[in-house]
Design goal:
Layout (H helix, E strand, L loop, with lengths): L3 E4 L9 H13 L7 H10 L3 H7 L6 H19 L6 H11 L1 E6 L3 H10 L8 E4 L11 H10 L6 E5 L2 H9 L3 E4 L17 E2 L8 H7 L2
Parallel strand pairs: 1-2, 1-4, 2-3, 4-5, 5-6
Helix pairs in contact: 1-4
């Protein structure tokens, strides 16, 4: 029986992927590197890891320095430009009335809290699982395994909602059925989400009954 819903954040509940790119583009520019959109997509689909990006591009930069600049700029963009995805508020409220729900994200805990507070959603979630607080983040299963542990539930009683191929890989590797709602700014390739239990164009296509049917 379904008792837990795990929500990704960036690109699923909030339209933050364009802002993530703008913040990283700004940060790298401060150190003399012009981050183009195509390269960002390439990096982002591999892993959300600044040290790995810097190594791949053979840059002589301090990852912590880049992250610090990015954090400051991204926090400004969240406050001034962030929008919620269609259907997100309604779905979160509906799910919270029937199930235990949690955020499982690759973002910093502070960013998770800031995004949810902006739209009055923080009170609906029982836990936040933040990738940077773990040894490995998505596409590895660690964030979802941690979420299962914290909420004392099992894959057979859970569903994950994701927007990306890396998020899908993480959920599937943890044994959790996953619904994918592709982000329009950085959509995954269709052949990268074949393991999804269901694919929808918008969160507006989901409701409680649809979610319950996934595990029947």
């Amino acid at each position: 029986m379904l008792d837990t819903i795990f929500f990704d954040l960036d690109g699923l509940l909030v339209d933050s992927e364009p802002l993530q790119f703008k913040a990283y583009q700004y940060a790298f520019q401060q150190f003399g590197f012009d981050l183009e959109l195509d390269r960002w997509f390439q990096w982002h689909r591999i892993e959300a890891s600044v040290p790995r990006w810097i190594e791949q591009a053979q840059l002589k930069l301090d990852p912590q320095a880049v992250r610090a600049v990015k954090k400051q700029r991204y926090d400004e963009l969240i406050a001034n430009e962030l929008m919620v995805k269609p259907g997100a508020v309604e779905l979160v409220r509906a799910c919270a009335s029937e199930f235990t729900i949690a955020v499982v994200s690759g973002s910093r805990r502070e960013s998770i809290e800031q995004c949810l507070q902006k739209f009055g959603l923080q009170q609906y979630f029982s836990a936040y699982i933040s990738g940077p607080e773990l040894t490995r983040s998505k596409p590895y299963p660690d964030p979802y395994l941690e979420a299962l542990r914290v909420l004392e539930t099992a894959p057979s009683r859970s569903i994950a909602l994701e927007d990306s191929a890396n998020g899908l890989k993480a959920a599937v590797a943890a044994g959790i059925a996953c619904i994918v709602c592709p982000d329009r700014f950085s959509p995954p390739a269709s052949n990268a989400i074949l393991d999804a239990t269901k694919v929808v164009d918008s969160l507006e296509a989901l409701d409680i009954e649809t979610l319950r049917l996934i595990l029947k």
